[in-house]
Structures are given as structure tokens and as C-alpha cells.
Amino acid sequence: EVHLVESGGGLVQPGESLRLSCTASGFTYSNYWMSWVRQAPGKGLEWVASIKGEGSEKHYIDSVKGRFTISRDNAKNSLFLQMDSLRAEDTAVYFCARLSRSATENYWGQGALVAVSS
Amino acid sequence: DVVMTQSPLSLPVTLGQPASISCRSSQSLVQSDGNSYLNWFQQRPGQSPRRLIYKVSNRDSGVPDRFSGSGSGTDFTLKISRVEAEDVGIYYCEQETQWPLTFGQGTKLEIK
Questions:
Q1: Cβ <8 Å between A50 and B58
Q2: B 62-91 residues with CB below 8 A of A?
Q3: Are A46 and A61 in contact (CB under 8 A)?
Q4: How far apart are CA A100 and CA A94, in angstroms?
Q5: Is residue A103's pLDDT more than 90?
Q6: Rounded to whole angstroms, what are the CA distances from B9 to A37, A69, B79?
Q7: Is the CB of B24 inside 8 Å of chain A's CB atoms?
Q8: Which of B85, B71, B81, B62 is nearest to B30 (CA)?
Q9: What is the pLDDT of residues A24-55, one digit of tens each?
Q10: With bands split at pLDDT 50, 70 and 90, how would you rate the model's confidence at A16?
């Protein structure tokens, strides 16, 4: 059974940093693109970043380019999101997700809350 | 960026009646391989999103056949043939044809 478990969320002040982690199990982790998708309180879904299986290709939404870094450790079945220079508008639940363009099943974690406030 | 626009944003439906959600993209979602990478997600209250439909019209495993997707180019539709109580939630279309991936604003389905 596939599981994605996020950790590392919390309350930080504007300008501070936070690192989210996601631990995956139940599938051959290195074979899959992995993504972060966020949802601000009471708002819709917003894709944040994705990374290819071997880590060679990464994509980001413009609003986080230069501030967030997606990475992975395939030996530990882990996905990371390093978030620097956090802003109030980054406040959201961050989901770790195995998205797919094909019949391959999608999986989502339960989410980690990141709150940026002074 | 591809802008995804859903309508309606609120959808009150009587149990057992059909429901339909429209999604329009600002650019064609047809990729060079001929596929349109348009997905539909359901997010029930308090839960993580769940994909229902991929590549416009393909149901994910375990999704009831009362859910169907259709469309092409820039216009897409999610239909529920007979709404059940468990269908309450927010429905999102999403394109994966090009980066950045983008979602529609969401359509909140509620029971009348």
C-alpha cells in the first residue's frame, strides 16, 4: 500500500526558512516524478514544484522560484521542499503528491500546515 | 501559463439528479503526442484530493461509473449522472500538458 507522509510544517515569521519532508513507501520511489501542491486556507489547489525520478529535472511555479528548492533522496524514499524567505502568502497546507499524466495512480499525503505570520 | 476556468463555482444538486461542471483552458491542451492532459480531482471535506479522471475521459481505478469526463481542445466537462451524498466536495480540473501545472478555481458541489 502506498503512503506519503509529510512532516516539518509549523509557524514561522516572514523572511524565515522551513524545510518540509515527505517519506514515501509502497512503491519504487525512484521511478516517479514527485510534486508539492499547496492549498491556502479556504482556497483552491496550487501546484508548487515537481522533480523527476532521478532528480535531474525540476520545475517551479514562478512565485516560489529563487526561494523554494525541491529535492529528493532516493536512498531514503524522501522528498523535500526547502522554503526560504517565506512570505505571508506562502501560508498553506502543503501536500506531497505522486502525480501522473497516465493511468498510473495518483497519491497524495495528508498535508503539512505552514503558517507564516509575525 | 495556462489559465483554467471552471463554472459554476457553486453547484447545489438534488440527490439522484445529474450534475455537470465545465472547465475551459486558455490554450489548447493537445500536446504533440496527440493527448490532452486534463485531469479532474475531487476533494471531500477534510480530505486530500483524489484524482477521478485522467486524459479527459479515463476514469481512475475505483471511481464509480456515474462520473464521466469529456471534451477536447479547450473545453472540458465533468458529469455525474446521479449525485449521491458522498459526492459532496470541491471538484478541480487540472492541466498537465505544460509547465507550470495549473488548476481551476474549484467547484463546490452541495446537496440541495
A1: no
A2: 90
A3: yes
A4: 18
A5: no
A6: 21, 33, 15
A7: no
A8: B71
A9: 999 999 999 999 999 999 999 999 999 999 99
A10: very high
Amino acid letter, B47:
Q
How many other CB atoms are found less than 10 A from the CB of residue B95? 25
Query: Is there a contact between A105 and B54 if contact means CB atoms under 8 Å apart?
Result: no
At residue A70, does pLDDT exceed 90?
Answer: yes
Q: What SS3 string covers chain B? A: CCCEEEECCEEEECCCCCEEEEEEECCCCECCCCCECEEEEEECCCCCCEEEEECCCEECCCCCCCEEEEEECCEEEEEECCCCHHHCEEEEEEECCCCCCEECCCEEEEEC
pLDDT tens digits along A54-63: 999 999 999 9
Spatial distance between the Cα atoms of B7 and B85, rounded to a whole number of angstroms: 21
Which residue in this structure is represented by grid cell 507522509? A5
What is the predicted pLDDT for the residue at A2? 96
